[in-house]
Write a structure and sequence with these properties.
It is a single chain. The protein is an alpha+beta fold. It has one domain. Helix content is 48%, strand content 19%. It contains three helices and three strands. The protein has a three-stranded antiparallel beta sheet, with helices on one face. β2 and β3 (139-149) form a beta hairpin.
């Protein structure tokens, strides 16, 4: 005499289609969540990289000015944000500004910069670039300003 395995006499044979579909749905949601997190990480990492680059470029022009203090004090490094970069190399300051501006344009999206040296020898370096806005799907313009005694 054989006994049934289950009280109602029926035997189970594998998973039902519904269980398989639920498992696929749960796994798909998990993968989508991980991909979304990865995209946000890449976007924030790119924006942080742009800020580090701006800091490095500000230090670069300040070092160039410290290497040429007489010309910096005379205001030869002064340039506005929207001013054209020097094309004629009348001084080392012109060459420094052109190289600096080209580095900003190459390393930062929409990058440009300005320098203003006061009579007291305080240099103010402003760097402006366009950054992808993480909260909205557009872009925003950022400006960092660095001040240093020459």
């Amino acid at each position: 005499m054989t006994r049934p395995l289950h009280p109602n006499g029926a035997r189970q044979h594998g998973f039902t289609l519904l269980e398989v579909l639920v498992a696929i749905l749960v796994m798909a949601l998990g993968v989508l969540g991980v991909l979304g997190l990865r995209m946000a990480t890449l976007q924030h990492g790119g924006n942080a990289n742009a800020r580090v680059t701006a800091s490095i470029q500000a230090a670069d022009i300040l070092d160039r000015m410290r290497a040429n203090p007489a010309r910096a004090a005379a205001g030869l490094y002064n340039i506005g944000l929207d001013a054209a970069e020097p094309t004629a190399f009348e001084s080392v300051a012109d060459q420094d500004l052109q190289q600096w501006r080209r580095a900003l344009a190459t390393r930062l999206p929409g990058g440009t910069g300005s320098v203003a040296v006061s009579a007291a020898g305080v240099a103010e370096v402003s760097i402006r670039w366009t950054e992808r806005d993480t909260n909205r799907s557009g872009a925003q313009t950022l400006t960092f300003t660095f001040r240093s005694q020459l």
